[in-house]
Design brief:
By secondary structure, the protein is an all-alpha fold. The protein has three helices and no strands. It is rod-shaped and about 75 Å long.
């Protein structure tokens, strides 16, 4: 009644399972890259002396849940 899967069918199932598993973690990866980009912009703006933009970057850090106490101190200094 049941037949054994062929090599192509096993490969296809493995690929589909891999993509399904990766889709579960894609939003986290995107959010993390957004947080890293926000931190990089924040650091670059501070190092360039763009203090008005540093203060505005605080909202961006808050959006990505990356606003830590050290960043808050830097925003206060700006």
């Amino acid at each position: 009644m049941y037949r054994e899967l062929g090599s192509f069918e096993r490969l296809l199932i493995a690929i589909l399972v891999t993509f399904a598993f990766g889709a579960l973690f894609a939003p986290t990866a995107i959010a993390q890259s957004g947080a890293q980009a926000a931190k990089a912009k924040f650091a670059n703006d501070y190092n360039d002396g763009k203090f008005k933009e540093v203060i505005a970057d605080g909202g961006l850090l808050r959006k990505y849940n990356a606003l830590d106490p050290q960043s808050q101190l830097i925003i206060g200094q700006a």
